[in-house]
């Protein structure tokens, strides 16, 4: 049975296991949808890049479902019978929609340039509905699920689940997720996440995360994050005028 959390710290913000990844997914979905909307089927290079981006989004959505099913839904069910039932059903629907969208992408790959525009418009509309459903679903998880998790588990217990989930993610997927997550978070959230990662990751692996900062963030945001971590800003090499 789950322990009961301390009630004296209710005013303090609780650990939200959904918020960071859902911010990343929302940004990822919006970026991808916009990309599909502005793609010209006669521009082969952009067309292929767009289909690749849609495939990546579908893969991360599928992986996200697996993570929630494996790590969060058992916690919810342990807290209260059927607490994850509605989301279980939604995940099955999402898996079917992902398979359908994947078929759309596969048939688009075979489509002649003359018919790509109509097929892209169809993909754009269906992807928009998939995004809409996911927005509603993520809101449910961030409100109804979190209410159950916060009532039945301490932040320390939730952090154990968080760490186990993160450790199950392959390095390549982690890097791709961070590229979308870092710009989607508020500066204080970025700093909190990176501080936690620095404390828990091997130094070499954290160096890889630091390299991603410059790739994912603009110069200002990257400098602010490094300063918050107490690290020197990695400025591009410049030729300074000779003194005196
Ligand atoms: Fe979910």
Condensed summary:
This protein has 244 residues and is mainly alpha-helical. The chain has nine helices and no strands. The model has no long low-confidence stretch (mean pLDDT 93).
Structural class: mainly alpha
List segments where confidence is low: pLDDT < 50 over at least 5 consecutive residues: none
Q: Tally the helices.
A: 9
Mean pLDDT: 93
Please give the radius of gyration in angstroms: 21 Å
Shape: globular
The succession of helices and strands, N to C, reads HHHHHHHHH
Q: Report the major sheet.
A: none
N- to C-terminal distance: 73 Å
Please describe what this structure looks like.
This protein has nine helices and no strands. The mean pLDDT is 93. The protein has a domain at 19-154. Helix content is 76%, strand content 0%. It has helices at 19-37, 44-79, 85-110, 113-152, 155-167, 171-184, 187-200, 203-216, 219-228. With 244 residues, it is mostly helical. Fe (ii) ion (FE2) is lined by residues 68, 87, 91, 137, 141.
Which characteristics define this entry?
single chain, 244 residues, mainly alpha, 76% helix, 0% strand, binds fe (ii) ion
Give the helix/strand layout.
Layout: H1 19-37, H2 44-79, H3 85-110, H4 113-152, H5 155-167, H6 171-184, H7 187-200, H8 203-216, H9 219-228
The structure holds fe (ii) ion.
């Amino acid at each position: 049975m789950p322990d009961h959390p301390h009630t004296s710290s209710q005013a303090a913000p609780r650990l939200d296991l959904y918020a960071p990844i859902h911010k990343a997914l929302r940004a990822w979905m919006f970026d991808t949808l916009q990309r599909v909307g502005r793609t010209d089927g006669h521009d082969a290079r952009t067309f292929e890049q767009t289909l690749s981006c849609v495939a990546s989004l579908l893969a991360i959505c599928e992986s996200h479902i697996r993570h929630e099913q494996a790590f969060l839904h058992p916690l919810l069910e342990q807290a209260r019978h059927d607490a994850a039932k509605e989301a279980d059903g939604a995940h099955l629907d999402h898996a079917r929609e992902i398979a359908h969208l994947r078929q759309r992408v596969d048939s688009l790959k075979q489509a002649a340039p003359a018919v790509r525009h109509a097929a892209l418009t169809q993909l754009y509309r269906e992807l928009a509905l998939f995004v809409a459903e996911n927005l509603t679903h993520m809101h449910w998880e961030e409100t109804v699920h979190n209410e159950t998790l916060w009532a039945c588990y301490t932040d320390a217990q939730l952090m154990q689940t968080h760490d186990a989930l993160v450790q199950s993610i392959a390095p390549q997927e982690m890097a791709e997720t961070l590229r979308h997550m870092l710009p989607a978070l508020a500066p204080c959230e970025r700093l909190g996440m990176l501080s936690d990662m620095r404390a828990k990751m091997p130094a070499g692996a954290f160096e890889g995360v630091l390299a991603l900062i410059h790739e994912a963030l603009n110069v200002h945001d990257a400098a602010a994050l490094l300063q918050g971590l107490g690290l020197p800003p990695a400025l591009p090499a410049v030729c300074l005028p000779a003194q005196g």
